[in-house]
Write a structure and sequence with these properties.
Number of strands: 4
Strand order of the largest sheet: 1-2
Mean pLDDT: 78
Strand content: 15-25%
Shape: elongated
Largest sheet: 2 strands, antiparallel
Radius of gyration: 30 Å
Distance between the termini: 86 Å
Length: 100
């Protein structure tokens, strides 16, 4: 014999002892669901404004390349960092051979 239960504005028919605990579907709305919705909304907003991923802009900024190992560096890398790369990775090569 089924029992009709009102639970959070939903009517669910359940069987067994009083119908409690079976067939009851709670409404969503946990923190994970809110975070996912917010993430979707922000992605759509960023796409509408024309903002792209930060990865795209970083890839475009990789303009310096070591001629020996083809490692890429940001255009903002200073000369000391490039010299350090040449000394650590290519000790037998001169700095001018790596970055002409």
């Amino acid at each position: 014999m089924g029992v009709e239960v009102r639970f959070w504005r939903r009517t669910v028919t359940g069987g067994g002892e009083g119908g409690r605990g079976r067939g009851v579907v709670p409404m969503g709305g946990g923190n994970a669901q809110k975070s996912a919705k917010s993430r979707e909304r922000n992605l759509a907003k960023a796409a509408a404004e024309g903002k792209g991923s930060q990865l795209d802009s970083k890839a475009k900024a990789m303009t310096i390349q070591c001629k020996v190992c083809m490692a890429q560096f940001l255009s903002t890398t200073n000369e000391a960092g490039l010299k350090q790369h040449a000394e650590n990775k290519h000790p037998k090569k001169a700095y001018n051979e790596c970055f002409p």
